[in-house]
Amino acid sequence: MNPRSLGVALALPWIVAPIVTAIRLSRSRSLDEAAPSVGEDAPLLSVIVPARDEEENIERCLRSILATSYPRLELVLVDDHSRDPTRRIAERIAREDARLRVVSAPDLPAGWFGKPWACATGAREARGAILCFMDADTTQSPDLLPRMVDTMRARDAGMLTVAGAQEMHTFWETLLQPQVFGMLLMRYGGTESVNESRHAWDKIANGQCIAIRRAAYESIGGHGAVRDKVAEDLMLAQRLFRAGVHTVLVLGVGQLSTRMYSSLGALVRGWRKNVFAGGIDALPAMAIARALFPVALTLFPLAELVPVATLAAHAAGAAWPGPTALTWAWIATTAMLVAWSVVYLRARRSPLWAALFPLGALVLLWIILGAIARWRRVSWKGRTYRAA
Length: 388
What we know:
The chain is an alpha/beta fold and 388 residues long. It contains 14 helices and 12 strands.
Protein backbone atom coordinates (compact mmCIF):
# COMPACT_ATOMS: atom_id res chain seq x y z
CA MET A 1 0.00 0.00 0.00
CA ASN A 2 1.46 3.34 -1.03
CA PRO A 3 1.68 6.17 1.55
CA ARG A 4 -1.36 8.07 0.30
CA SER A 5 -3.56 4.97 0.18
CA LEU A 6 -2.48 4.23 3.73
CA GLY A 7 -3.45 7.78 4.68
CA VAL A 8 -6.93 7.25 3.20
CA ALA A 9 -7.32 4.00 5.16
CA LEU A 10 -6.23 5.67 8.40
CA ALA A 11 -8.85 8.40 7.88
CA LEU A 12 -11.76 5.95 7.63
CA PRO A 13 -12.73 6.21 11.34
CA TRP A 14 -13.24 9.97 10.93
CA ILE A 15 -15.55 9.26 7.98
CA VAL A 16 -17.40 6.24 9.38
CA ALA A 17 -17.99 7.41 12.97
CA PRO A 18 -20.27 10.38 12.11
CA ILE A 19 -22.19 8.24 9.60
CA VAL A 20 -22.78 5.46 12.14
CA THR A 21 -23.84 8.03 14.76
CA ALA A 22 -26.29 9.62 12.30
CA ILE A 23 -27.78 6.22 11.45
CA ARG A 24 -28.23 5.36 15.13
CA LEU A 25 -29.79 8.77 15.77
CA SER A 26 -32.17 8.38 12.82
CA ARG A 27 -33.82 5.42 14.58
CA SER A 28 -34.89 7.63 17.48
CA ARG A 29 -38.53 7.90 18.46
CA SER A 30 -40.21 11.14 19.36
CA LEU A 31 -43.05 12.50 21.46
CA ASP A 32 -44.53 13.66 18.16
CA GLU A 33 -45.70 10.05 17.71
CA ALA A 34 -47.95 10.39 20.78
CA ALA A 35 -51.45 11.82 20.68
CA PRO A 36 -52.06 14.07 23.70
CA SER A 37 -55.41 12.39 24.35
CA VAL A 38 -55.54 12.21 28.15
CA GLY A 39 -58.92 13.23 29.56
CA GLU A 40 -60.42 14.05 32.91
CA ASP A 41 -59.73 10.48 34.05
CA ALA A 42 -55.99 11.16 33.75
CA PRO A 43 -53.88 10.33 36.81
CA LEU A 44 -52.76 13.18 39.03
CA LEU A 45 -49.37 14.33 37.76
CA SER A 46 -46.96 16.01 40.18
CA VAL A 47 -44.31 18.16 38.53
CA ILE A 48 -41.40 18.76 40.91
CA VAL A 49 -38.93 21.55 40.19
CA PRO A 50 -35.81 21.72 42.40
CA ALA A 51 -34.37 25.23 42.34
CA ARG A 52 -31.29 26.87 43.81
CA ASP A 53 -30.40 30.39 42.67
CA GLU A 54 -32.54 30.26 39.54
CA GLU A 55 -33.67 33.89 39.42
CA GLU A 56 -33.02 34.14 35.68
CA ASN A 57 -35.00 31.04 34.75
CA ILE A 58 -37.67 30.27 37.30
CA GLU A 59 -40.55 32.44 36.12
CA ARG A 60 -40.28 31.25 32.53
CA CYS A 61 -40.10 27.64 33.70
CA LEU A 62 -43.04 27.76 36.11
CA ARG A 63 -45.34 29.67 33.76
CA SER A 64 -44.66 27.22 30.93
CA ILE A 65 -45.60 24.30 33.20
CA LEU A 66 -48.77 26.01 34.42
CA ALA A 67 -49.78 26.64 30.79
CA THR A 68 -50.03 22.87 30.20
CA SER A 69 -53.12 21.30 28.70
CA TYR A 70 -52.80 18.37 31.10
CA PRO A 71 -56.02 18.32 33.15
CA ARG A 72 -54.83 17.12 36.58
CA LEU A 73 -51.64 18.85 37.65
CA GLU A 74 -49.91 19.87 40.83
CA LEU A 75 -46.64 21.77 40.71
CA VAL A 76 -44.16 21.67 43.59
CA LEU A 77 -41.29 24.14 43.60
CA VAL A 78 -38.58 23.07 46.03
CA ASP A 79 -36.47 26.02 47.09
CA ASP A 80 -33.02 24.62 47.87
CA HIS A 81 -31.75 27.45 50.10
CA SER A 82 -31.61 29.96 47.26
CA ARG A 83 -29.50 33.05 47.89
CA ASP A 84 -31.33 35.13 45.28
CA PRO A 85 -35.03 36.04 44.70
CA THR A 86 -35.96 32.59 43.33
CA ARG A 87 -38.36 31.87 46.18
CA ARG A 88 -40.03 35.28 46.08
CA ILE A 89 -40.69 34.93 42.36
CA ALA A 90 -42.17 31.47 42.83
CA GLU A 91 -44.36 32.58 45.73
CA ARG A 92 -45.72 35.45 43.65
CA ILE A 93 -46.72 33.01 40.91
CA ALA A 94 -48.21 30.64 43.51
CA ARG A 95 -50.54 33.40 44.70
CA GLU A 96 -51.86 33.59 41.14
CA ASP A 97 -52.30 29.83 40.61
CA ALA A 98 -53.26 27.41 43.39
CA ARG A 99 -51.76 24.45 41.51
CA LEU A 100 -48.28 25.68 42.51
CA ARG A 101 -46.90 25.11 46.00
CA VAL A 102 -43.55 26.41 47.18
CA VAL A 103 -41.74 24.31 49.78
CA SER A 104 -38.31 24.56 51.38
CA ALA A 105 -35.73 21.81 51.31
CA PRO A 106 -34.56 21.00 54.86
CA ASP A 107 -30.88 21.40 55.67
CA LEU A 108 -28.75 19.15 53.50
CA PRO A 109 -27.97 15.89 55.34
CA ALA A 110 -24.50 14.37 55.32
CA GLY A 111 -23.90 12.15 52.33
CA TRP A 112 -26.46 13.88 50.09
CA PHE A 113 -25.96 16.09 47.05
CA GLY A 114 -28.23 19.11 46.80
CA LYS A 115 -30.32 18.20 43.76
CA PRO A 116 -31.23 14.64 44.86
CA TRP A 117 -32.17 16.01 48.30
CA ALA A 118 -34.41 18.69 46.79
CA CYS A 119 -36.02 16.12 44.48
CA ALA A 120 -36.60 13.75 47.40
CA THR A 121 -38.17 16.61 49.36
CA GLY A 122 -40.52 17.36 46.48
CA ALA A 123 -41.47 13.70 46.10
CA ARG A 124 -42.45 13.55 49.77
CA GLU A 125 -44.66 16.62 49.36
CA ALA A 126 -46.23 15.47 46.09
CA ARG A 127 -49.50 13.53 45.88
CA GLY A 128 -49.44 12.39 42.25
CA ALA A 129 -49.39 8.84 40.90
CA ILE A 130 -46.74 10.05 38.44
CA LEU A 131 -43.82 12.19 39.55
CA CYS A 132 -42.23 14.40 36.90
CA PHE A 133 -38.90 16.00 37.81
CA MET A 134 -38.16 19.11 35.76
CA ASP A 135 -35.11 21.35 35.89
CA ALA A 136 -35.62 25.05 36.54
CA ASP A 137 -33.86 26.05 33.31
CA THR A 138 -36.41 24.26 31.11
CA THR A 139 -39.35 25.57 29.10
CA GLN A 140 -42.12 23.29 27.88
CA SER A 141 -44.95 23.44 25.39
CA PRO A 142 -48.55 23.01 26.61
CA ASP A 143 -48.70 19.49 25.13
CA LEU A 144 -45.47 18.13 26.67
CA LEU A 145 -47.06 16.58 29.76
CA PRO A 146 -50.07 14.99 28.01
CA ARG A 147 -47.76 13.55 25.34
CA MET A 148 -45.49 12.15 28.05
CA VAL A 149 -48.35 10.45 29.91
CA ASP A 150 -49.75 9.09 26.65
CA THR A 151 -46.32 7.69 25.73
CA MET A 152 -45.91 6.11 29.16
CA ARG A 153 -49.22 4.34 28.68
CA ALA A 154 -48.54 3.31 25.09
CA ARG A 155 -45.09 1.91 25.87
CA ASP A 156 -45.93 0.59 29.34
CA ALA A 157 -43.07 2.62 30.79
CA GLY A 158 -42.33 2.95 34.48
CA MET A 159 -39.94 5.78 33.67
CA LEU A 160 -40.02 8.12 30.70
CA THR A 161 -37.32 10.71 30.07
CA VAL A 162 -37.31 13.33 27.33
CA ALA A 163 -34.33 14.73 25.44
CA GLY A 164 -35.34 18.18 24.26
CA ALA A 165 -33.74 21.03 22.35
CA GLN A 166 -30.73 22.85 23.76
CA GLU A 167 -30.94 26.62 23.50
CA MET A 168 -27.79 28.35 22.28
CA HIS A 169 -27.78 32.14 22.28
CA THR A 170 -24.19 33.25 22.89
CA PHE A 171 -20.96 32.56 21.04
CA TRP A 172 -19.67 30.10 23.64
CA GLU A 173 -22.94 28.20 23.92
CA THR A 174 -23.08 27.77 20.15
CA LEU A 175 -19.46 26.70 20.04
CA LEU A 176 -19.35 24.30 23.00
CA GLN A 177 -22.78 22.72 23.49
CA PRO A 178 -22.65 20.81 20.17
CA GLN A 179 -19.23 19.47 21.17
CA VAL A 180 -20.49 18.04 24.44
CA PHE A 181 -23.68 16.62 23.01
CA GLY A 182 -21.76 15.27 20.02
CA MET A 183 -19.58 13.33 22.45
CA LEU A 184 -22.70 12.02 24.21
CA LEU A 185 -24.25 10.96 20.91
CA MET A 186 -21.11 9.06 19.97
CA ARG A 187 -21.44 7.19 23.27
CA TYR A 188 -25.19 6.52 23.33
CA GLY A 189 -26.52 6.94 19.78
CA GLY A 190 -30.25 7.51 19.40
CA THR A 191 -33.08 6.75 21.76
CA GLU A 192 -33.60 3.20 20.55
CA SER A 193 -29.94 2.31 21.05
CA VAL A 194 -30.51 3.18 24.71
CA ASN A 195 -33.96 1.62 24.99
CA GLU A 196 -33.04 -1.68 23.34
CA SER A 197 -29.84 -2.27 25.28
CA ARG A 198 -29.92 -5.06 27.85
CA HIS A 199 -27.09 -3.53 29.87
CA ALA A 200 -27.70 -1.17 32.76
CA TRP A 201 -24.62 0.89 31.92
CA ASP A 202 -26.22 1.84 28.59
CA LYS A 203 -29.26 3.35 30.30
CA ILE A 204 -29.45 7.09 30.64
CA ALA A 205 -32.00 9.69 31.66
CA ASN A 206 -32.12 13.41 31.02
CA GLY A 207 -32.45 15.02 34.44
CA GLN A 208 -34.08 18.04 32.80
CA CYS A 209 -37.27 15.98 32.35
CA ILE A 210 -37.95 12.60 33.98
CA ALA A 211 -41.39 11.12 34.72
CA ILE A 212 -41.59 8.09 37.01
CA ARG A 213 -44.57 6.16 38.28
CA ARG A 214 -44.66 6.58 42.03
CA ALA A 215 -44.68 2.83 42.69
CA ALA A 216 -41.52 2.38 40.60
CA TYR A 217 -39.87 5.37 42.25
CA GLU A 218 -40.56 4.12 45.74
CA SER A 219 -39.52 0.56 44.88
CA ILE A 220 -35.87 1.64 44.57
CA GLY A 221 -35.92 4.08 47.48
CA GLY A 222 -36.43 7.17 45.35
CA HIS A 223 -33.62 9.69 45.15
CA GLY A 224 -32.17 8.20 48.31
CA ALA A 225 -30.76 5.47 46.07
CA VAL A 226 -28.70 8.07 44.18
CA ARG A 227 -28.16 10.62 46.94
CA ASP A 228 -24.37 10.87 46.44
CA LYS A 229 -24.26 10.81 42.65
CA VAL A 230 -23.38 13.73 40.38
CA ALA A 231 -25.34 12.21 37.48
CA GLU A 232 -28.33 11.27 39.61
CA ASP A 233 -30.50 11.10 36.47
CA LEU A 234 -28.30 8.50 34.79
CA MET A 235 -28.11 6.47 37.99
CA LEU A 236 -31.89 6.61 38.50
CA ALA A 237 -32.33 5.06 35.05
CA GLN A 238 -29.79 2.35 35.86
CA ARG A 239 -31.31 1.54 39.27
CA LEU A 240 -34.82 1.38 37.84
CA PHE A 241 -33.69 -0.86 34.97
CA ARG A 242 -31.94 -3.22 37.38
CA ALA A 243 -35.15 -3.34 39.43
CA GLY A 244 -37.07 -4.56 36.38
CA VAL A 245 -38.75 -1.24 35.55
CA HIS A 246 -39.25 -0.48 31.87
CA THR A 247 -37.32 2.72 31.15
CA VAL A 248 -37.88 4.70 27.95
CA LEU A 249 -35.98 7.62 26.39
CA VAL A 250 -37.67 9.71 23.69
CA LEU A 251 -36.92 12.89 21.79
CA GLY A 252 -39.04 15.95 22.44
CA VAL A 253 -37.31 18.78 20.63
CA GLY A 254 -40.66 20.35 19.73
CA GLN A 255 -41.97 20.15 23.29
CA LEU A 256 -39.02 20.84 25.60
CA SER A 257 -36.11 23.27 25.51
CA THR A 258 -33.35 24.01 27.99
CA ARG A 259 -30.83 26.76 28.32
CA MET A 260 -28.29 25.08 30.54
CA TYR A 261 -25.53 27.69 30.75
CA SER A 262 -25.38 31.25 29.45
CA SER A 263 -21.66 32.12 29.72
CA LEU A 264 -18.27 30.53 29.20
CA GLY A 265 -17.68 30.41 32.96
CA ALA A 266 -20.99 28.65 33.56
CA LEU A 267 -20.32 26.20 30.72
CA VAL A 268 -16.92 25.31 32.14
CA ARG A 269 -18.17 24.94 35.72
CA GLY A 270 -21.26 23.00 34.71
CA TRP A 271 -19.63 20.48 32.40
CA ARG A 272 -16.55 20.15 34.60
CA LYS A 273 -18.96 19.08 37.36
CA ASN A 274 -20.56 16.37 35.23
CA VAL A 275 -18.20 15.09 32.61
CA PHE A 276 -15.90 12.90 34.71
CA ALA A 277 -17.57 12.27 38.07
CA GLY A 278 -20.85 11.56 36.30
CA GLY A 279 -19.49 9.93 33.17
CA ILE A 280 -17.62 7.23 35.03
CA ASP A 281 -20.95 5.75 36.14
CA ALA A 282 -21.84 5.13 32.50
CA LEU A 283 -19.22 2.36 32.32
CA PRO A 284 -19.38 -1.36 32.99
CA ALA A 285 -18.41 -2.18 36.57
CA MET A 286 -14.98 -3.41 35.52
CA ALA A 287 -11.76 -2.10 37.02
CA ILE A 288 -10.01 -1.87 33.66
CA ALA A 289 -12.81 0.21 32.09
CA ARG A 290 -12.76 2.69 34.95
CA ALA A 291 -8.98 2.85 35.04
CA LEU A 292 -8.85 3.72 31.34
CA PHE A 293 -11.76 6.17 31.47
CA PRO A 294 -9.65 9.33 31.99
CA VAL A 295 -7.70 8.52 28.83
CA ALA A 296 -10.80 7.52 26.87
CA LEU A 297 -12.56 10.74 27.84
CA THR A 298 -9.92 12.84 26.10
CA LEU A 299 -10.12 10.90 22.83
CA PHE A 300 -13.10 12.80 21.38
CA PRO A 301 -11.51 16.27 21.45
CA LEU A 302 -8.05 14.89 20.62
CA ALA A 303 -9.47 13.14 17.56
CA GLU A 304 -10.60 16.58 16.38
CA LEU A 305 -7.43 18.45 17.27
CA VAL A 306 -4.65 16.13 16.07
CA PRO A 307 -5.53 16.21 12.33
CA VAL A 308 -5.84 20.01 12.44
CA ALA A 309 -2.54 20.31 14.32
CA THR A 310 -0.92 18.10 11.68
CA LEU A 311 -2.09 20.42 8.90
CA ALA A 312 -0.91 23.43 10.89
CA ALA A 313 2.53 21.87 11.28
CA HIS A 314 2.71 21.28 7.55
CA ALA A 315 1.64 24.86 6.81
CA ALA A 316 4.34 26.11 9.17
CA GLY A 317 6.97 24.29 7.11
CA ALA A 318 7.71 21.38 9.45
CA ALA A 319 9.53 18.45 7.85
CA TRP A 320 6.86 16.19 9.34
CA PRO A 321 4.16 15.23 8.34
CA GLY A 322 4.98 12.97 5.44
CA PRO A 323 2.59 11.95 2.63
CA THR A 324 0.70 9.39 4.76
CA ALA A 325 0.07 11.72 7.70
CA LEU A 326 -0.76 14.63 5.43
CA THR A 327 -3.32 12.64 3.42
CA TRP A 328 -4.88 11.34 6.63
CA ALA A 329 -5.05 14.84 8.14
CA TRP A 330 -6.66 16.41 5.07
CA ILE A 331 -9.33 13.74 4.77
CA ALA A 332 -10.06 13.60 8.52
CA THR A 333 -10.33 17.39 8.78
CA THR A 334 -12.59 17.58 5.72
CA ALA A 335 -14.81 14.84 7.12
CA MET A 336 -15.14 16.73 10.41
CA LEU A 337 -15.97 19.98 8.64
CA VAL A 338 -18.75 18.23 6.73
CA ALA A 339 -20.07 16.51 9.86
CA TRP A 340 -20.09 19.71 11.93
CA SER A 341 -21.75 21.61 9.07
CA VAL A 342 -24.59 19.09 9.17
CA VAL A 343 -24.82 19.42 12.96
CA TYR A 344 -25.14 23.18 12.81
CA LEU A 345 -27.63 23.07 9.94
CA ARG A 346 -29.82 20.69 11.96
CA ALA A 347 -29.53 23.09 14.90
CA ARG A 348 -30.69 25.91 12.58
CA ARG A 349 -27.37 27.68 12.73
CA SER A 350 -25.05 28.76 9.95
CA PRO A 351 -22.81 25.92 8.74
CA LEU A 352 -19.93 28.41 8.93
CA TRP A 353 -19.81 27.61 12.66
CA ALA A 354 -18.25 24.29 11.62
CA ALA A 355 -14.98 26.08 10.81
CA LEU A 356 -14.59 26.83 14.54
CA PHE A 357 -14.74 23.19 15.64
CA PRO A 358 -11.01 23.12 16.63
CA LEU A 359 -11.62 25.93 19.12
CA GLY A 360 -14.63 24.10 20.52
CA ALA A 361 -12.59 20.91 20.82
CA LEU A 362 -9.79 22.78 22.58
CA VAL A 363 -12.18 24.22 25.19
CA LEU A 364 -13.79 20.80 25.65
CA LEU A 365 -10.36 19.24 26.24
CA TRP A 366 -9.60 21.94 28.81
CA ILE A 367 -12.88 21.16 30.62
CA ILE A 368 -12.18 17.43 30.57
CA LEU A 369 -8.64 17.79 31.89
CA GLY A 370 -9.92 20.03 34.70
CA ALA A 371 -12.61 17.48 35.54
CA ILE A 372 -10.06 14.65 35.63
CA ALA A 373 -7.81 16.70 37.91
CA ARG A 374 -10.71 17.17 40.31
CA TRP A 375 -11.50 13.44 40.10
CA ARG A 376 -14.70 12.87 42.09
CA ARG A 377 -14.66 16.24 43.87
CA VAL A 378 -17.23 18.59 42.37
CA SER A 379 -18.35 22.12 43.18
CA TRP A 380 -21.64 23.73 42.22
CA LYS A 381 -23.53 26.79 43.40
CA GLY A 382 -21.55 27.30 46.55
CA ARG A 383 -21.35 23.65 47.58
CA THR A 384 -18.52 21.15 47.26
CA TYR A 385 -19.12 17.40 47.21
CA ARG A 386 -17.23 14.19 46.77
CA ALA A 387 -19.07 11.75 44.55
CA ALA A 388 -19.36 8.13 45.61
